[in-house]
Amino acid sequence: MLPVKIDVIIRSSRRTLSLEITQNAKLVVRAPQRMPLRAIEQFIVRKQSWIADKQRFVRERYAGVRPKVFADGEQFLYLGNTYRLYIVHDSELPLHFNHAFFLSKDSISRARELFVAWYEEQASVTIRKRVDWYAPLFGLKYNTFSVTRAQRLFGSCSARNNLHFAWRLIMAPVPAIDYVVIHELAHITEKNHSRRFWTIVERMLPDYGQGMHWLRDNGHLLVI
User: Tell me, what's the pLDDT at 33?
Assistant: First the structure.
């Protein structure tokens, strides 16, 4: 019997094994299509100490993160700042923002859907502006831009230079947004995380560490 429970095995055309600990401390294994289960289990046994440490870290980190209930007075992040939610009775709009969030009482049942849509709209405008500011500044051209509902990554750049950014990123401060934007733009030139890649990132954004560290320490808070 394995000392660690495997929650999900995802097989694909990849050549190597990788492990992921999700926000609820589940173990996800990504494996080559034809790799025998025994080989996967042997890998898990060798990595059991790392898995246990990572799961413990995740449980401790997310212990204080509570799902939003969309109650009057609740705080929501936007561009790194927190804003209060007010439940109102006479609003013509289901949800609107004006130095605070105002949610119609009649729309509470679909509050999360409304918040996500609002965040997606803001991300489409604000993050796109940051991309379109930096890309020409460094002579870079991307193919398409999109905002996604990705839960694991804040951004990605495909082999065809399609840029994708999670709507959750709009809750972070601008330096963190800029770090992700620069990170993905740098992948247009370098499709890996080599020393050359990080040299490119630093040249484009010398203080990228500020945003990177903010996301490392606070990225788990960018949820609703």
Answer: 94
